[in-house]
Design a protein that fits this description.
The chain is an alpha+beta fold. 43% of the residues lie in helices and 12% in strands. It contains 6 helices and 6 strands. It has helices at 16-30, 34-45, 71-76, 83-97, 103-107, 112-125, and strands at 2-3, 9-10, 59-61, 67-69, 133-136, 142-145. A two-stranded antiparallel sheet has the order 1-2. A two-stranded antiparallel sheet has the order 3-4. Strands 5-6 form a two-stranded antiparallel ribbon. Helix 1 (16-30) runs antiparallel to helix 2 and helix 2 (34-45) runs antiparallel to helix 6. The two termini are 32 Å apart. Residues 6-10 have low confidence and may be disordered.
């Protein structure tokens, strides 16, 4: 574990159990904000989760055990990555930091797998999984329906 100047720590590479624990802590940090939750979930799922590894300089662990994503470090740390990796991480940073992003640049340079993840993240950020529809049955009786997410997270 590396201690930073501000007293926070950056953990070294971890085993699968450690990654699961960090994922849970990142999800807990993002709880309550659909865009942040979508950004964290995208970070955890894209590229087999390697950019959510605690050894990444943008994944910060607090001394009390909390973990979070430092958006400035994420934005500054993608220069050596592939175009697809940079695009996905730009969307992660935009969702977590609630900032603007060039969507056209992002979606036109992605493979199908990562485009699906970004579409699911956008649907999650827009709360499509919480939407309610009115459905009228053949007898003319209206019912409320919860159709689920517009684009589901791939499994």
């Amino acid at each position: 574990m590396t201690t930073l100047e501000n007293g926070r720590t950056r953990e070294g590479a971890m085993d699968e159990r450690g990654r699961i624990e960090v994922a849970a802590r990142l999800r807990e940090w993002a709880r309550g904000s659909l865009p942040m939750g979508a950004g964290v979930e995208l970070l955890l799922r894209a590229f087999d989760g390697r950019f959510a590894d605690p050894s990444c300089r943008w994944v910060i662990s607090e001394p009390d055990g909390r973990a979070w994503v430092e958006v400035d470090a994420l934005n500054a740390g993608t220069g050596v990555l592939s175009g697809g990796e940079r695009r996905v991480l730009a969307m992660v940073a935009a969702l977590i930091g609630e900032t603007t992003v060039d969507v056209v640049d992002i979606v036109t340079g992605l493979d199908r797998t990562h485009l699906h993840l970004i579409l699911a993240a956008l649907a999650h950020a827009a709360a499509s999984h919480e939407h309610t529809d009115v459905v009228v049955d053949p007898d003319g009786v209206a019912h409320l329906s919860r159709p689920g997410a517009l684009v589901r997270w791939p499994t």
